[in-house]
Design a protein that fits this description.
The complex is a heterodimer of chains A (115) and B (112). With 115 residues, chain A is mostly beta strands. Chain A contains no helices and 11 strands. In chain A, the strands form 2 sheets. In chain A, strands 2, 4, 5, 9, 10 and 11 form a 6-stranded mixed sheet that branches. A 5-stranded antiparallel sheet of chain A has the order 1-3-8-7-6, with no helix packed on it. The mean pLDDT of chain A is 93. Chain B has no helices and 11 strands. Classes of the chains: A mainly beta (115), B mainly beta (112). At the A-B interface, β4, β5 and β10 of A face β4 and β5 of B.
């Protein structure tokens, strides 16, 4: 089955700096890669996702890059703010779009943005 | 944040006891999922269901059981066979063919 490795497990940055979280996956058939943010005591929420036919996707201060050859993808947060402090999870799946998706999650990265 | 409701928020299990976690959604979503979250371990899939009266095992199904008698409901039973049940349990749902997971607010299960 799929195995997703996520690094680092904790990350501290100064407010305004950039943060990068990296994930690798094992199943070359995986084609969908979402990132979820979980604030303390709250439910995870999707913040951005990318499919295997795209190399990069941006949404304001957040971007995700995908390298299919190397089987890794990364989350980039620019101009970090205190409200970016949370646990971030990457995930991978090989859903076909015809059924449900069985995501395999990384172990998470706790991001702390220091004011 | 309505739409998918989990209850109770906190649950305690005694030795040898089965407990059931509730998950209800009014989003008319076809697929429903149960994940277990342990500190530093990410989210691991326990069971999922794509349609009523059908469900499949995920990566860590041993010691758990589910049912899907109604589209809106997907309860999870933690049986006495699950020797390490203490964890945060998250229910999620999606429309068929959509990747975005909609999560409930979770149930924290602890062993007395």
């Amino acid at each position: 089955g799929e195995n997703v490795e996520q690094h680092p497990s904790t990350l501290s940055v100064q407010e305004g700096d950039s943060a990068v979280i990296k994930c690798t996956y094992s199943d070359s058939a995986s084609n969908y890669f979402p990132w979820y943010k979980q604030e303390l005591g709250k439910r995870p929420q999707l913040i951005i996702d990318i499919r295997s036919n795209v190399g990069e996707k941006k949404d304001q201060r957040i971007a995700v890059t995908l390298n299919k050859t190397a089987k890794h993808f990364s989350l980039h947060i620019t101009e970090t703010q205190p409200e970016d402090s949370a646990v971030y999870f990457c995930a991978a799946s090989r859903g076909s779009g015809a059924g449900s998706y069985q995501l395999t999650f990384g172990k998470g990265t706790k991001l702390s943005v220091i004011p | 944040d309505g739409g998918i409701t989990q209850s109770p928020k906190y649950l305690f299990r005694k030795e040898g006891q089965n407990v059931t976690l509730s998950c209800e959604q009014n989003l008319n979503h076809d697929a429903m999922y149960w994940y277990r979250q342990d500190p530093g371990q990410g989210l691991r899939l326990i069971y999922y269901s794509q349609i009523v009266n059908d469900f499949q095992k995920g990566d860590i199904a041993e010691g758990y059981s589910v049912s899907r008698e109604k589209k809106e409901s997907f309860p999870l039973t933690v049986t006495s066979a699950q020797k390490n049940p203490t964890a945060f349990y998250l229910c999620a749902s999606t429309p068929m063919g959509v990747e975005k997971l909609f999560f409930g607010s979770g149930t924290q299960l602890s062993v007395l």
